[in-house]
Amino acid sequence: MRKFIVITLLAALLLAGAYTALAQQGTPAPGAAQIFVVVCESQAVVNFTGTMPTGYDVYYQMFSAAGGTGNALTNLRQVQVDGVYAFSETIPYLTGATVPTGSIASIRVIVGREGNPASATMNTTVDDVQDGCNNPQNPVGTSIDLGSSAAVVSTGSTAGGSIFSPFGGVIQPPAAAAPAAVATAQPLVVIGARDTGETGRSETAGVIFAECNQYMENANPGILYDTDNITIFWSWFAKTPELVQEHIDNAGYVVALNGIPLPINISPIEQRGRNFWVFYTHNVGQLEPGAYHIDFNLIWGKPISDGYDDFGPDTETPVINSNCDFVVQKNPDGLEVSDKYNRQFGPRPVGS
């Protein structure tokens, strides 16, 4: 049985009475996608139609079970579309992967900014029973393989996007974070991660996105130990390197850990996908057990553009204010750790 889903975001949200709440959170909802997927034994046929504003693309990934769960059958892939579009692709599964006759597989489809699936304005799944193959419905194109490091790998939770790491690839939130070790989630985009073998631990433990509370499910710091090397980071991307440099020249960041402003290291501008990126980092080092809070504040000296939207004075986004909370636990093996960075900062009392 084929399942067909039509998502027209703005209209659907208005009908559901949800657009006002999203708008109050500053979350855009552009784009439309009609999805028709055919699950075959060793490949899938994906069909997308809709209307897409400039600067947004469709991302998709196939999974071996319903609802975007199970094993990844493909890497995360990006479909470059603009305006009114119709796109089909026959995508082979990863080496050795098959879907037996009568089994259910699924596709997760995301609409997000070009080069940034974590900015998802649409995040949905469509299931299909493997009962034979079919031909593409639309003009056939080729999507961009974003690789396994950017894949939306699911371990049972719904999947979404990824946040680029300053060290290459993407940060990986934990498969299942322990409630005592993380701040309250504010899920805008929900994503899973590969299982590290320890519940609640991230594969990239210690690499902390400074705005994690606003993107908790794809930037969740997870369980952190006093033996972890902590690096706090954030980033900016734009359509051209010149626009990134304009941001660097005019951006005023105040990022503080437990109230103490952090010195900032700025990376060279680099291209990832179709966009250009700069990463801001501060290596904290090891921290004593306790709760920590990051305040993130960004203003601009003059209006700028990233090639898609405007920021700064007299624009719709004059400032950006975010935050991140995380907890550091004592290493369970009782290892001694010296030269703790929080001799300067001091741990923030839990619940403060």
Q: On the 0-100 scale, what is the average pLDDT?
A: 76
Helix content: under 10%
Q: Which of globular, elongated, flat, extended, rod-shaped describes the shape?
A: globular
Please state how the strands of the largest beta sheet are arranged side by side. 8-7-4-5-9
Report the span from N to C terminus: 53 Å
Find the count of extended strands (DSSP E, 2+ residues). Answer: 21
The number of distinct helices, counting runs of at least 4 residues, comes to 5
Rg: 21 Å
Estimate the strand proportion.
35-45%
Helix/strand class: mainly beta
Task: List the domain count as a whole number.
Answer: 2
The string of secondary-structure elements, in order, is EHHEEEEEEEEEHEEHEEEEEEEEEH
Which spans have pLDDT < 50 for at least 5 consecutive residues? 1-29, 149-160, 176-198, 337-344, 346-352
Q: Sheet bearing the most strands, described?
A: 5 strands, antiparallel
Describe the structure.
It is a single chain. Mean pLDDT is 76; it is low at 1-29, 149-160, 176-198, 337-344 and 346-352. A hairpin with a 2-residue loop joins strand 16 and strand 17 (275-285). The strands form 5 sheets. Strands 8-7-4-5-9 form a 5-stranded antiparallel β-sheet, with no helix packed on it. The protein has 5 helices and 21 strands. 43% of the residues are buried. By secondary structure, it is mostly beta strands.
Summarize the structure.
The chain has 352 residues and is mainly beta.
What descriptive keywords fit this protein?
about 350 residues, mainly beta, Immunoglobulin-like, 2 domains, 5-stranded antiparallel beta sheet, 5-stranded mixed beta sheet, 5 helices, about 10% helix, disordered C terminus
